[in-house]
Structures are given as C-alpha cells and as structure tokens.
Amino acid sequence: MLYLILCFLLGFFSSSLLSLSLSLPPTHLCRPEHSSALLQFKSNLSLSISNCSQEVHIFSAHKMDSWDEDTDCCKWEGVVCDNRKGNVIGLDLSCSGLSGSLQSNSSFFSLQNLRWLNLAGNYFGNSEIPSEFGKLRSLTYLNLSDTALTGFVPHEISLLSELVSLDLGQNYLLFRDHDFNMLVHNLTKLENIVLDRMGLSLVVPYSFLNFTVSLKHLSLSYCDLQGNFPTQLFHLPFLQNIILRNNPNLIGYLPETNWSSPLSFLDVSGTRFSKGLPGSIGNLKHLKTLNLDSCVFMGSIPSALGNLTKITFLDISGNMFQGQIPDVFGNLNDLSFMDFSSNNFSGLFPSSAFNLTSLTFMDFSSNFLRGTLPNNISGLSYLRELHLYANLLSGRVPGRLFSLPSLEYLNLGFNKLNGPIDTIQEANLVQLVDLSKNEIQGTIPSSFFDLMNLTILDLSSNNLSGNIKSCMLVKLKNLRSLNLSFNHLLSLTRCSNDANSTLPMIIEFHFSSCNIQRFPSFLNASKSLQVLDLSNNQIHGSITKWEAEGWEGLATLNLSMNFITTVEEIPGKRLYVLDLHSNSLQGPLPTPPQSLAYFLISNNELVGEIPSKICNLSFFLYLTSLRTSWAELFQIVLGHLATSSQWML
Ligand SMILES: *[C@@H]1O[C@H](CO)[C@@H](O)[C@H](O)[C@H]1NC(C)=O
Ligand SMILES: *[C@@H]1O[C@H](CO)[C@@H](O)[C@H](O)[C@H]1NC(C)=O
Ligand SMILES: *[C@@H]1O[C@H](CO)[C@@H](O)[C@H](O)[C@H]1NC(C)=O
Ligand SMILES: *[C@@H]1O[C@H](CO)[C@@H](O)[C@H](O)[C@H]1NC(C)=O
Ligand SMILES: *[C@@H]1O[C@H](CO)[C@@H](O)[C@H](O)[C@H]1NC(C)=O
Ligand SMILES: *[C@@H]1O[C@H](CO)[C@@H](O)[C@H](O)[C@H]1NC(C)=O
Ligand SMILES: *[C@@H]1O[C@H](CO)[C@@H](O)[C@H](O)[C@H]1NC(C)=O
Ligand SMILES: *[C@@H]1O[C@H](CO)[C@@H](O)[C@H](O)[C@H]1NC(C)=O
Ligand SMILES: *[C@@H]1O[C@H](CO)[C@@H](O)[C@H](O)[C@H]1NC(C)=O
Ligand SMILES: *[C@@H]1O[C@H](CO)[C@@H](O)[C@H](O)[C@H]1NC(C)=O
Ligand SMILES: *[C@@H]1O[C@H](CO)[C@@H](O)[C@H](O)[C@H]1NC(C)=O
Ligand SMILES: *[C@@H]1O[C@H](CO)[C@@H](O)[C@H](O)[C@H]1NC(C)=O
C-alpha cells in the first residue's frame, strides 16, 4: 500500500515539476553535480531489454535513453527533483534493463538528497550492496528487489534511519544477526519491510520484537528463518500484512487475543506454526487472506470464521484440524478460494459452502466428511474447480453440478455416493469429471453425453448399469481419457447408424471388468487412441480381420480374461503391449507386429507352431500359469527360440 502511495507521490512530484518548469526560464533546474553523477552511473551500466515479469515495461527499458548532458536532468525519465533547489530527490529505474555492477566509488552515492530510490528488477549480478548506501541518509524508500545482489547486507543500511519502506527481496543476500538487530532497532520509522527469498537463517526471529510499533507490512517468505517466531508481533497495532510463507523451520502459533485489528493478509503457510486457530480470528474485520496451508495446526476450527465477511482467500489445507466444520459460510460473499483439504475433519459437509456467490475454487478433499450434496445449489456461479475427493459423502450426484456455468473441474471420487446421477437440465462446459470409486447405481443419463467439453471422464469402480450406445458416447468429441472400468453391469454397443462416427481425440479408453460383449470396432478410426483396455469382459468369438483394421496409434491392447477363440489379425501396427491371457484362443498364434515388446498369452488353448517371425522380435513373452506343460514350453522358449518348433500351451 505504502509503495503505491509513494509511486503516486513520485508521479505527483514529476507532474508538479512539469507545470513548474513551464513557467521557468529555460535554464537547467538540475544541479550540475547531480547531473554528472547520474551520467556517470549510466556510463557504468549497460542497457538491455528488461525482463521484469510483473509488468510490461515497454518504454522503461529505454528510460535512460533520455539521459544526456544537453537536457535538464530533472526532465529525464525516472528522475524527480525538488522544485526549489533542483536536488535530485527521487529515482525510479525499476525494471529498466540495467546491468552491470554497483561500484562503491560511484559518484551515484553523492546524491545525498535522494528520498526515493527504486532499482528493482535490474541486474547487478554478483555485486554486493556497497556500504556507501549508508550515505543516502534521506532515503525513505529503498527498493533493490530482484537485482541479483549477493553477499551480506552491510550494517551501514541501519544508518538509513528515515527509511519507511525497504525491499531487498529476491536476491542472494544474507543478513548477519547482529546487523539485522541493528536495523530493526534503528529504523524507527519503518512501516514496510520485504525480505522475501533472502537468507535469514542467521537471524534470531526474537529480534523482530524490536520492530517499530508503526510496522504495517512484514514479508519474509522463503527466507530460511529458524526458531521461534514471537507471537507478540501479531499485537502490533498497525500491522496489516504478515507473510511468512515457506520457512519450514519456523515455529510459532497464533495469538489467542489482542490481534492487530487492521490485519488483512496473514500467510504462515509452509511453516511449523502449530496449536489452534483461535476464535478471536473472527474479530479481524479487515482480513482478506488467511493462508495456513501445510503447517501443523490442530484442534477444531471456530465458527467465528463465518464472521470474516471481507475474506477472499481461505486456505487451511494440509494440517491436522479435526472435528466438525461449522456450517457458517453463507455470508462470506467475497470468498473466492477455499481449501480445507487434507485435514482430519469429520461430521457433516458444510452445505453453506454451496451458497457462496464469489467462489471460484473449493477443496474439501481427503477428510472424513459425511452427508449428502445439496440439491438446490444457490451459489457457485463462478466456481471453476470443485474437489471433494476422498471423503464419506453419500446420496445422489446432483444434476445441478453439471449446470454450474463456470465449472471446469469436478472431482467427487472415492466417496460413498450411491444415488444415481441426476438428469442434467442444462449441460455446462466442464472438462474433467471424476466420480470414480463410489457406489453410484443406475444408468448414465443420456443428458450426461451433452457435456460436450469433457476431456477426462472417470466413472470407474461404481455400480453403474445399462448400455452405453456408441452414438451417444461419440457426442463427447473432446474426450481424451475415458475410464468406465469396474462397473460390472455396464455394457457398450454400437449403434447401427453411426457408420463413421468416432472419438477423434481419445487417447485412453478403459472399459475393464464390465459387461462388454463385442469388440468396439467403431473406435478403430481414432488415430490418437493409444490405450484400449477391455480386459475381464464378456467378449466371445473372434476378432476378425475386418475388426482389426485401423487402430493406427494403438500401443497397448488388453483383451485378457475374455472368451476370445480366434484372433484373425492383431489390431494395431504399432502395438507395444498385447495382453491376451486367459481367453479361449485355439489354433496357431497370430503373427504380432514388429513393434511388440510385451506379449501375454498364458492361459489359452493354443496349439501350433511359433511363427518364425516371433524369433526376430525382442519382446518378452509372459507365459506364467500355463495350463499344461509349461515346463516343456519354458525349455522350448529358452532353448529353441531361434528355430520354429512345435509347441503347446
Ligand atoms: C519493489 O519494486 C518491485 C518492482 O517494481 C515491486 O514489485 C515491489 O512491490 C517493490 N517493493 C516495494 C516494497 O515497494
Ligand atoms: C564508470 O564511469 C566512470 C566515469 O564515466 C569511468 O571513469 C569508469 O571507468 C567507469 N567504470 C566502469 C567499470 O565502467
Ligand atoms: C572505481 O573503482 C574501480 C575499481 O574498483 C575503477 O576501475 C574505477 O575507475 C573507479 N571509478 C572512479 C570513478 O573512481
Ligand atoms: C532475465 O531473466 C533471466 C531468467 O529469468 C535471468 O537469468 C536474467 O538474469 C535476467 N536478466 C536481466 C537483465 O534481468
Ligand atoms: C542509528 O541511527 C542514528 C541516526 O541516524 C545514527 O546516528 C546511528 O549511527 C545509527 N546506529 C547504527 C548502529 O547504525
Ligand atoms: C531490542 O534492542 C535492545 C537494544 O539494542 C536490546 O537490548 C534488546 O535485547 C532487543 N530486544 C530483542 C527482543 O531483540
Ligand atoms: C491484551 O491487551 C490487554 C489490554 O491492552 C492487556 O491487558 C493484555 O495483557 C493483553 N494480552 C496479551 C496476551 O498480550
Ligand atoms: C460474529 O459477529 C456477531 C456480530 O458482530 C457476533 O454477535 C457473534 O458472536 C460473532 N460470532 C462469532 C462466532 O464470533
Ligand atoms: C483423525 O480423527 C480420528 C477420529 O475421527 C482419530 O482417530 C485420528 O487419530 C485422527 N488423526 C489425526 C492425525 O489426528
Ligand atoms: C443456502 O441457500 C438456500 C437457498 O437460498 C437456503 O435455503 C439455505 O438455507 C442456504 N443455506 C445456508 C446454510 O445458508
Ligand atoms: C468447449 O469446447 C469447444 C470446442 O469443442 C471450444 O471451442 C470451447 O472453447 C470450449 N470451452 C471451454 C470453456 O473450454
Ligand atoms: C462415411 O465415410 C465414407 C467414406 O469415408 C463416406 O462415403 C460416407 O458418406 C460416410 N458416411 C457418413 C454417414 O458420414
């Protein structure tokens, strides 16, 4: 916030300067020694195209192009002067594509009137921070973030006692404990400190207690902080943002009382913060972000969460919270992201979450939540992802879920859902649906095949029954992966009138352990199909030459545990894995394609010659659990593979 104000101030200064300079005679306002100091600074750096990620700085890459001796330095881009004395007081060269080193003897450090200095997003590779920075005593704003600076931060930084905002983040910089202490102690006006991705492993967090009472913004993510974070810091009366993300050796806990009331951003994710989430959190009327992801919090969560009416981001996943989740979310109208996954929550699923009007992401996966999913969902118009994987949810699969206008990803797998899948009134554009490992009964409603943007569909391991017609299935033109395995009563038949229809994008098609009776030859034109698993079905008779045509991309074909008697030709010219074990194959073995690497044919009734071509192949023949004379065969395969032989399985 503060830097926004400062940026605004910079803008304000330069525009007031502009209006002032219009009324002045055409003499240079800039002090000549400032002008030459800046030119020397420029001459020691090279200019390249900025690759700052956060903004596109098309023009600022050439900020310094306007810097030359003939013009007033107060008019140079990025330079701000005070309008009376012509002192250079502000320098914003962030993301300007500068590279070179910061030299300690640079006359730059003679710019002792500088109040704002932003060099962020440039490249001073392998420079240390020159101790001469300590000369810039008037600095209130210093930003050196993301400049590839290295080494220890010099203790002279604590001479900058006017500093209100300091950003040294995204550098290879380290702090010595003593120097850090001095800084904390001496910078009594500091409101804003950002040291993300610096090395603070030598700093004892206890010293944070000496931060000035006016501290508003503390950002110390990815700093390798060690030891105990002082809880009292949460009491600082003006604190708004506290970001400690990813300090896996930082221990701490949240205060029971006396929270800083303006707190708006609290992120301790990826630390060893523990104990509970206190009910007093509900008093934080300004809290927008609460991220406790991947810590060691435990206990139950307070219903006061329902009082956080400003909250937009709530992530408490990956902890050991337990007990019932209070059903208090109905009023959190700004909540956009909510993740309660991977805890130990039990009791009923909090259905008020389904009333949230701004939610885009919801995840309650990997808990022990019971209950049914509400039928009349009034919110969730913006929901893109719904993850309720691995819980104990039961009942129907509400058809309304498939009408939510923004839904892209739905994962209800590994629950106890048993009701049928409701008819879908108005199919949405959902792309991934996983309802696997439930107990869903009944047929798949034909309206389900109107979900035309489905790319991944997993309905495996349920009790689905009925017959899927090929002409329905092929409506899912975007489908890449389909898994319907382990639905013992589910079958697939070809429509008579769909001569040319197919699934053009399909890559994997799993239909194992169902009730399929015919080889689904309508898929043979799917050039992208790589994996076809039809094992453990009811396919009888033969795979004809006609059925084996096409299958251009097929790499893995599993037809094991069926009742196939003959294979006139093996489908797929590029087949890599072919599993025909446990069928009723008789007669001679069909010649496999050259590409084959794994060939499983045990448990059949084959008699005949090993085709001589097999001997040129470098595949593994799996011949375990043979019905007869396997020892004999083993010997043949080992000893006589190079010549055709009589053999028998
Ligand atoms: C420092 O500058 C960078 C790049 O402009 C910006 O992203 C960052 O927010 C600034 N830090 C502060 C504290 O102003
Ligand atoms: C830095 O600039 C000064 C003055 O232009 C020049 O004398 C000096 O050689 C430069 N140093 C480097 C390393 O370019
Ligand atoms: C600064 O020091 C470097 C060597 O460290 C030298 O090459 C350069 O000329 C010096 N520049 C000035 C302005 O003294
Ligand atoms: C540009 O980005 C690359 C990698 O993201 C980095 O290595 C390089 O130092 C950057 N260059 C500058 C001039 O910032
Ligand atoms: C702290 O700041 C004061 C005032 O600028 C300064 O005199 C003093 O030397 C600083 N102390 C340290 C240890 O930097
Ligand atoms: C705060 O600073 C004072 C003076 O430097 C020091 O004596 C004290 O130990 C510091 N407190 C903490 C918690 O570091
Ligand atoms: C909370 O604040 C009250 C009043 O300022 C004070 O009496 C109490 O000791 C504080 N509690 C803690 C735990 O700091
Ligand atoms: C939520 O806020 C209301 C009104 O401010 C208050 O009455 C209620 O006790 C709070 N609930 C919780 C659980 O803190
Ligand atoms: C999770 O809760 C169950 C009871 O619901 C309990 O037996 C188990 O110990 C808990 N696990 C953890 C890691 O807290
Ligand atoms: C959710 O909204 C529905 C319909 O508006 C309402 O009947 C229900 O009480 C709400 N549930 C909660 C928990 O707020
Ligand atoms: C849905 O699929 C169509 C093509 O079948 C595509 O044009 C459209 O962008 C997709 N919509 C979404 C939201 O993915
Ligand atoms: C099927 O394809 C053949 C040739 O590929 C074409 O002659 C025929 O009209 C197509 N039939 C339909 C119903 O699209």
From TrEMBL:
A Pfam match is LRR_1
Lipid bilayer topology: Single-pass type I membrane protein
Which family is this sequence assigned to? Answer: Belongs to the RLP family.
Q: Sorted alphabetically, which PANTHER family does this protein's record hold?
A: LRR RECEPTOR-LIKE SERINE_THREONINE-PROTEIN KINASE FLS2, UNNAMED PRODUCT
Q: Which Gene3D superfamilies match?
A: Ribonuclease Inhibitor
Keyword Hydrolase listed? The answer is no
Q: Where is the signal peptide?
A: 1-23
Query: What keywords is this UniProt entry annotated with?
Result: Cell membrane, Glycoprotein, Leucine-rich repeat, Membrane, Receptor, Repeat, Signal, Transmembrane, Transmembrane helix
Q: Which residues cross the membrane?
A: none
Please, which domain of life does this record's source organism belong to?
Answer: Eukaryota
Please state where this protein is localized: Cell membrane
The residues covered by the Leucine-rich repeat-containing N-terminal plant-type domain are 36-82
In terms of SMART domains, this protein maps to: LRR_TYP
Q: What is this protein called?
A: Leucine-rich repeat-containing N-terminal plant-type domain-containing protein
